[in-house]
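ingest -> validate -> predict -> emit
validate: passed (alphabet ok, no gaps, 163 aa)
predict: started
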Amino acid sequence: MTDTSMAQKKSFSGLHMLAILVGFFGVVIAMNILLAVLALRTNSGLVVDDSYESSQSFDKDTAKLLADAALDIHPQINIADGMLDIGLNTAAGEPIAAKSLQVTLGRAVSANTDITPTFHMVSVGHYQAPVNLGLGRWLGKISVKLNNGETWVQPIQLVVKTP
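emit:
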C-alpha cells in the first residue's frame, strides 16, 4: 500500500464517538427541556390541595351529583352577541324560580382563563350575563340556590364557534 491510499482511508476515532454521543444526548436533553417548558405553560395547577382528603368525600360528592341529576331541572344554555343566556325549566317547560345562579367557566387545560360572570334575572327561570369567551371549548358548572334552600349543581360544556 502506498501512503496516499492510507491517507484517504480514515478510521473511526474517539472524537467521532464523542461527537455522536454529544449530538444524541444534546437532542434528548433539548427535547426534554422544550416539553417541560410547554407543560409548565399549560399547567392548570392543582386540582385539589390534598388528593387523599378529596378521595374521602368522593362517594358523597358523586351521590350529590347523581341526586342533582335526578331533579327535574333542565338548563337551556345559549351564547350569542356576548351574552350568556341560561333558562332553568322543568321537563314540562315550566320555569324554575331560584334565589341565585352562579356559573364558573374555564378552559380544560388552564385555570388562568376561568371566569365567573355575574348574572341578572330577566324573568323567572331566565338569567343573562355579559361574557367575552374566546373560540373553542369551555367547561364549567352551574350552581343554583333553589327557593327551598337546596343547592343544585351540574357540570356544563360550551362550544363557542363564532365570536
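Helices lie at 3-8, 14-41, 51-56, 58-70.
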